[in-house]
Amino acid sequence: MRHTKLVCFIIAAAAAIGCGKKSAEDLERDWNATEQNAQKYASKYPTAKPLIDDLTKQAKADFDEAKKADEKSRPDKMQVALDRLSKPLDVFKTYETEVGKLDALLNDKTLMGSLSAADFKPLDQMSSAAKKKACCILQPNEKACSDLQGTCGAAPTLANMGDLDAKLESAVNDIKEAEKALEAKKPKPAAPAAPAGSGSAGSGSAKK
Fold it and tell me: pTM value?
């Protein structure tokens, strides 16, 4: 009986894993979405465009080759090729998410209203420097970038996506530090008021 239950458990687990694996059709749709995402970032970030285009070309060749594999191994090979393109693109998503968080803090009326000019200035400079560091890596010729703290220097020389990832990750970490500094200045919420009458009731019982 115990042996039968074990066999049933193994079969059920295998079935669950099988159900969780994407089909070749699903991966084809994922590839198309990822390729569009790559094109979006390549258009938006000029210095990254040659690297993204080259990576897309290489991953596309791998993906097309994976589609020729036998039915059993095809999804796994397609996933590997898909990851080759999708995972390096995550750094752009992370960068945009963190910039959005930082801008939200800088536009928080309650936070900004609570800061004196002396408190705000170093936080503003820290935030601008962090955003500019990333901007000068990705969009060195954009006016919105130079408006932060003067024009950028020469566009960085990027060897490959790994090089870009390392440089941009450093800039993103600076953005996160600016976020932390602003978060620390957020006004603390007021302590909840004691229920009415609780003080008099307490003093009355003490007298007894």
Answer: 0.76
